[in-house]
Amino acid sequence: GEGRYIGIRGMDPNLNTTTINGMFVPAPDSGARSVALDVIPSDLLASLEIVKTFTPDMDASAIGGNVNVRSLSAFDKQGRHMTVSAEGSYNELVESSSPKLAGSFANTYDMGSGSDNFGIALAASWFDRDFGSDNIETDGGWVGDLETVGGQEFKGAEEIEQRSYDVNRERIGLALNFDWRTDSSQFYLRNMYSEFSDQEYRSRNEFKFDDGEAIAGNDTSASWEDAVIEKSMKDRLEEQTILSMLVGGETTANQWTFDYSYGYSLSEETEPDRLDTTFEGEDLDIGYNTIGEIPTLTAEAAAFDGTSYELAEFEYTDGLAEDEVNTIKLNATYDLFSDAYNGNIKFGVMSRVRSKDYNAEVGIYDGVDGLTVADFQAGGVRYGIGDFGPAIDQSAIRSYFFANRDMLELDDDTLVESTANDYSMDEDVIAAYLMSTFERGGLHIVYGVRYEDTDFSATGRRIVVNDITGSGDPEAQPVDFSQNYDHVLPSINVRYSRGDFVWRAAATQTIARPNFTDLKPGGEIEFEIDDGENVLEAEIGNPNLQPVEATNLDFVVEWYPGGVSLISAGVFYKDLDNFVVIADVGDSIDLTPLVGNVPIDDPEVIMPINGDSAELFGVELAFVQQFDSGFFISANGTFVDSEATYPDRDGKTALPRTPDTVLNGAIGWENEIFSLRLAATYRDDALQEFGELDDPEFDIFQSPHTQIDLSAKWNITDSLQLSMAAVNITDEPYYNYFGSSQYNAQYEEYGRTISLGLRFTPN
Question: Which of 29-33, 59-63, 115-119, 216-220 has the highest mean pLDDT?
């Protein structure tokens, strides 16, 4: 129900980087590189800066672009500045109100220099939000060769899930910045801390059709007898924190300028005492009588009786992910002046030491005979898109688990779940660059080359089940990997301005390092004898993945006809190598590191690999116009044509998570007292992921999505402002589908949110 990641030019957010005050920021999420920006309260920001083309003095580890979060500086304001705001919002789906408080203070002081040369800026924010969602999704896709007991084949779902989420999110943010300036130098200390807690209660019904016998089925409906429904409750608190500290300065001496900085960032994600509880109802007659975005599920009366579901399993998790980065930067610039041109030569070095760790202690406990949902029942479930049945009281089930934990029996899967996904990774980057800037008349050129050397190492444990030459019991085997790679990355950026027109062009080379989920060294390996053959099944990570490499070409022309007005058009092209995909490589890799000398007749090894190549061509259009009457209009659009080749897939597909069309627009009216804005965003359908790489029928697509928001502000006095916002006023759902829009993959709706706030700025 709220945005988390920024997509630049519609591309996958994992192909972007995020910085705070220019310093690299790690992701608190255990598997991704993209930073979820909903962790950072917007009240702490002075601005968001988006960079689409890179110069040699910038970190080159992004293909889409860079998002720089800039916090408030005292020198951004004139003298003392203070704000206090309070807001309340209401979500119609959960019928709940949420409070928000924020404030900021900035001031500059004369520290003996005769003018203000020292500044302090402080900002704080707190937001406690209650919301939820209603969801229905299909697990595993729609299979084309299901068969009824009468021998009739049909295409249908093997499992459909109903999900109801009730969520509380609390955000706390603090920023404290210091600036000190002298005649030849300036120094700064930037501190930002964000804390994000997400308490989620998820009620779920899993209609497991394939555990029964299909008695009827066609293109739009099917029914099963003696099937299973699993009813479960997830009680999970997820806490994410981001700490960013940056100290640095800049010194000028004659034609030389030196800047230097040290940055420390720490991101954490914890899941303390997560509890997932599953009850199982067997021998039930279930089915569906319509398909589409919201399949209509059917079930006999016993499915709505809590006594039909016996306690089957507890899963307890205590997880911690940490991502720590230390960064040192040194830069030197020598200015060049002449009657013909101005310019400079700039060079520098950067060292970034990064350590990322994930560890989860998981306990899977068998159920208890005789206990049913009725023993932990708490009325019904808030669920607006179907019949859900009885609810599980999360507090009652949690109390029972911790009171009886020592008497419960651990399941054999505990070792796998506690070990296979743990890892410790180190990623150290040393970079150096040389660049030059040339200015003459309306021509501005920045060109140069950047060198980056990366040392990567990873340790973890794989769970191996050897049923051929071993005991057949799960065993944890330590594994470690290391690799070194380097890149030489040239770039040139050209800008030419004349009159009301500006032309820009760029040719750059950048990289995007693989996600940590793909790099993890652990996984599961099992080999056994089946029908006289040695069979291998493995699902593992790949720490030997190479970064995605990109050659980027950009051209844009901008026209500023006067006033607050802009018309621009641009094209861009990206050629990608080493694109990462998940594939079965059992027939193409050396199996010895997995199974030793055991001969394998039928191998299946699922792992991420570097794919072949991908191309992306796009057009960007933008228009902004504000009239003297106060009326304004803005619109922009990105139109992309992408294609990629993959192993185990004939032909080409679009790049995952890259829609063909992204549109943004706003219209409104404003003066010094009042403003009103209606904004809309649109994303075309896009390939999200491959359910099975070798079968396009299981490709998952995101349906086109349009969201409309309304906001208004009224300056009651010079110091007091009233604001109102209505988010998702058309109650637009999120919808994914398999292959064709009639085959549900995930449907989720969130409801509208209305907010009302007051902001006080004393004179």
Answer: 216-220
Is it the case that residue 611 has pLDDT exceeding 80? Answer: no
DSSP H or E segment with residue 577: strand 565-577
Mean pLDDT of the chain: 93
Cα 662-664-670 angle, rounded to 5 deg: 175
The rounded distance, in Å, linking the Cα atoms of 574 and 613 is 11
Q: In this model, does residue 121 exceed pLDDT 80? A: yes
Half-sphere exposure of 716 (CA within 13 A, CB side): 10
Place of tokens 């069309």: 661
Question: How far, in whole angstroms, is CA 382 from its chain's centroid?
Answer: 27
Within 13 A of 316's CA, how many CA atoms are on the CB side?
A: 16
Strand 443-466 and strand 523-530: pairing? parallel
Please identify which residue in the block is written with the tokens 């026209």: 559
Cβ(217)–Cβ(148) under 8 Å?
yes
Strand partners, 484: 455
Q: What is the number of other CB atoms lying within 10 angstroms of the CB of residue 447?
A: 17
> C-alpha distances in angstroms, 227 versus 162, 207, 213, 280?
16, 8, 7, 11
How many angstroms separate the CA atoms of 489 and 196, rounded? Answer: 37
Please tell me whether residue 716 adopts helix, strand or coil conformation.
coil
Task: List phi, psi (to 5°) of 21.
Answer: 55, 35
CA distance 11 to 64: 6
Instruction: Using DSSP bridges, classify how beta strands 65-71 and 16-20 pair: parallel, antiparallel or unpaired.
Output: parallel
- What is the rounded distance in angstroms from the CA atom of residue 416 to the CA atom of residue 241? 28
Structure tokens at 243: 């700490």
The long-range contacts involving 702-706, CB below 8 angstroms and separated by at least 24 positions, are 702/659, 702/734, 702/735, 702/736, 703/735, 703/736, 703/737, 703/741, 705/732, 705/734, 705/735, 706/680, 706/681, 706/682, 706/730, 706/732
The residue type found at 610 is N
Q: Length of the chain in residues, anyone?
A: 763
Q: Round to the nearest angstrom and report the end-to-end CA distance of the chain.
A: 37
The pLDDT tens digits for 531-577 are 888 999 999 999 999 999 999 999 999 999 988 899 999 999 999 99
The structure's pTM equals 0.90
Of residues 705, 699, 690, the one with CA closest to residue 735: 705
DSSP 410: B
| 3-state DSSP assignment of residue 698 | helix
CB atoms within 10 A of CB 115: 8
Instruction: Tell whether the model's pLDDT for residue 459 goes beyond 90.
Output: yes
Identify which of 257, 311, 242 has the alpha carbon closest to the alpha carbon of residue 279. 311
Residue 41: is its pLDDT beyond 80?
no
